[in-house]
Amino acid sequence: MSTSAMRLPLVQRAVFGARRQQASIAKSLFKGTLESRVYPYPDGSKQGAVKGCRDMEEMGRQDLGLALKSVTHDMSASKITETHNEILKDIEEKGKAAAYCLTEESCGTDPSGIQTTATLSNDETHYILNGKKTWVANGAAAEYLLVLAMTQVNETSKRLTCFLVDRKVGGVTNGPPYPTSGLKSCPVHDVEFKNVKVPKENVIDGVGGGHKLALALRTGTQHRLSAAVLGGHKRLLSYMTEHCNNRKAFGRRLRDLSLIKQRLAMSTMRVYATESMLYLLAHDIDAGLDVTCEAAMVKIFSVRSALDSLDDGLQVLGGRGYLTTDTAEQLFRDINGFRSVGGTEEINSLFLALTGLEVAGAHLRTKGTLSIMAGRTKRSLGLVSIHAGHHPSLKQAAGIVDKMLVKTNAALEAVLIKFGKKITDEQIVVSKVAEVTTLLYSMVAVLSRASKSASTSCDSSQHEIVLATTWVRHCTVSLNTLLNDIENIFKTLDSNLGRIADHVSDVGGYIPTHPADF
């Protein structure tokens, strides 16, 4: 980016579209180069991912189960191209459903443990598919199934391959729906394949391309899953607000009690942060950027923040929120179901942090320690800063983010220098790195959005400025705690936590003597 372009305020560049094709935000966070980036907040709805998120958000607000069913179908159908014209017509014109078969009893998000096999026939015209898939959303209704199976690629090795299976060929059966606690409108089944003949033309993305495809499908759907959860989150906030406006306690409306105000404010900020992160991610998807890390961040944050708000909501609603007929209780069951869809929180956290630390490690090797230290000193003196490009009303908040970036990059460099390649074994450290970068991303997203709002003088700009500045301060407290935790891990390596877990696992339960037995 030219020096003259860098002198333009962020919001001005966003409004006039002075944007270049750039690396992802996440990679900039891990490299410590965020100060030189521009993040225009998306202001349109005609783009693919942005529009898709808006549609999915509304569907999630109405019914999270139907939203999940839609995501599952669209994800599976997205791999069916013109080469399968008849199947494509069935789906697009006749409304036939599709499903994705990945999980098995022996493996979940990690596809390397898949036991389902596909053996090439003697005449090499088709594959014979055998195996059993579990947790298949929409598995009973789907006419067409994307199935991941192990294939023999040469004499010594097997690799994962994706197949498009037409249920009409026979050999495909499904079990009864799982008795899930939520997401009732998206039934989940086992699907079994016995000697199913699959034509060679129905291999998707080539023999051995299944692992890459599975990762791409997971990343490619995380923003839509997050949008559905955001819709449910907004529904909860509306429900909480209505209750607080109408319910009285101690002669006052709930909305006038300071502890209730705190819960409502936190829930509002979580919705705002999730929405800002999601549509910033959607904008970058439409721009063709690599958003693998951001997608994981938004998926983790959207579910976790919605569950935090649900905890606040259940406290605000009292006994009413505990009824199985209540909106909050339904949302609690449904949103919890999204914790494992699209990868569990642990899997996404490890993927995010290890991918980011790989980027940071490469940057460290390229620049060298002395160069990075010099850059850090320059940033701490305020010679390079992200806050120069934000709206004046957000200058202080952006300055706080700038300081947290310096602290975070110092911590990431220390982690890499301390553990090196062994960082993959330090899952507690890695998970905290994921939390730190996710919070930083949320801070950047809300500042970018509030800057755009303030620059265009939209009706909600003053409210958004308060939301953004308060969120930044709230996240700063959490970030400092997490960074201190990372520093303390260097001293203890959390050995005590490991020892406690080992003791409990060895015994098979709780160990301490009951206090009544002393």
The overall average pLDDT, rounded, is: 81
How much of the polypeptide forms β-strand, as a percent range?
Answer: 5-15%
SSE arrangement, N to C? HHHHHHEEEEEEEEHEEHHHHHHHHH
Got a strand count? 10
Determine the fraction of residues in helical runs and give it as a percent range.
55-70%
Q: Give the distance, in angstroms, between the N- and C-terminal Cα atoms.
A: 71 Å
The helix/strand class is alpha+beta
Spans with pLDDT under 50 lasting ≥5 residues?
1-23, 33-46, 367-388
Which geometry do the CA atoms define? globular
| Widest β-sheet, arrangement of strands | 1-4-5-8
Radius of gyration: 25 Å
The number of helical elements comes to: 16
Report the sheet with the most strands, covering strand number, pairing sense and barrel closure. Answer: 4 strands, mixed
Structural overview:
By secondary structure, the protein is of the alpha+beta class. It is built from 16 helices and ten strands. Strands 1-4-5-8 form a four-stranded mixed sheet, with helices on one face. It has a four-stranded antiparallel sheet with strand order 2-3-7-6, covered by helices on one side. A two-stranded antiparallel ribbon has the order 9-10. Strand 4 and strand 5 (158-166) form a beta hairpin. It is globular, with a radius of gyration of 25 Å. It starts with a helix and ends in an 11-residue tail after the last helix.
